[in-house]
């Protein structure tokens, strides 16, 4: 496998895995995302689209590099989000809530009973690291690894 193909595979599998994990934690684990969680998803979706386009065009180096940069952008947002969760700096002043459906009275009741999803409170941690922290770490490794594979050998 050529280095460009390996980089593209790393970006595609990595970004898809991180998006899959986020969706699994939301729909199976019941962890509803805050606004910054949603922000972290968009660059991964862009990376998947760019990676698929690069693959369809026969391993396009520039598109794969853009996909890797998109993954790094998600990681940078993850660093910011983790910093907000650990109260290293101030984050957003708005919050989001879980989606609601039903009749008007059901929606109103659901809105009143639904807690706000705070960006400054980690819903889940493992070894003291939140999901935003893991996204930052893994996105850095994936994006950095892909760019390292794309470098021109001496």
From TrEMBL:
<dbReference type="GO" id="GO:0006457">
    <property type="term" value="P:protein folding"/>
</dbReference>
<feature type="transmembrane region" description="Helical">
    <location>
        <begin position="41"/>
        <end position="58"/>
    </location>
</feature>
<dbReference type="InterPro" id="IPR003752">
    <property type="entry name" value="DiS_bond_form_DsbB/BdbC"/>
</dbReference>
<dbReference type="GO" id="GO:0016020">
    <property type="term" value="C:membrane"/>
</dbReference>
<keyword id="KW-0812">Transmembrane</keyword>
<protein>
    <submittedName>
        <fullName>Disulfide bond formation protein B</fullName>
    </submittedName>
</protein>
<dbReference type="GO" id="GO:0015035">
    <property type="term" value="F:protein-disulfide reductase activity"/>
</dbReference>
<feature type="transmembrane region" description="Helical">
    <location>
        <begin position="7"/>
        <end position="29"/>
    </location>
</feature>
<feature type="transmembrane region" description="Helical">
    <location>
        <begin position="65"/>
        <end position="84"/>
    </location>
</feature>
<keyword id="KW-1133">Transmembrane helix</keyword>
<dbReference type="Pfam" id="PF02600">
    <property type="entry name" value="DsbB"/>
</dbReference>
<dbReference type="InterPro" id="IPR024199">
    <property type="entry name" value="Uncharacterised_DsbB"/>
</dbReference>
<feature type="transmembrane region" description="Helical">
    <location>
        <begin position="124"/>
        <end position="150"/>
    </location>
</feature>
<keyword id="KW-0472">Membrane</keyword>
<dbReference type="InterPro" id="IPR023380">
    <property type="entry name" value="DsbB-like_sf"/>
</dbReference>
């Amino acid at each position: 496998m050529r280095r460009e193909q390996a980089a593209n595979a790393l970006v595609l599998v990595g970004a898809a895995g991180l998006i899959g994990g986020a969706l699994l934690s939301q729909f199976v684990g019941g962890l509803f995302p805050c606004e910054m969680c949603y922000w972290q998803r968009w660059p991964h979706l862009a990376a998947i689209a760019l990676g698929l386009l690069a693959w369809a065009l026969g391993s396009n180096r520039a598109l794969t590099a853009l996909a890797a940069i998109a993954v790094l952008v998600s990681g940078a947002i993850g660093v910011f989000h983790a910093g907000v969760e650990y109260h290293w700096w101030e984050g957003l002043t708005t919050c989001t809530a879980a989606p609601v459906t039903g009749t008007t009275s059901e929606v109103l009741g659901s809105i009143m009973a639904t807690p706000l999803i705070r960006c400054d409170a980690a819903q889940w941690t493992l070894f003291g690291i939140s999901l935003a922290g893991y996204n930052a770490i893994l996105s850095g490794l994936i994006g950095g690894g892909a760019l390292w594979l794309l470098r021109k050998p001496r």
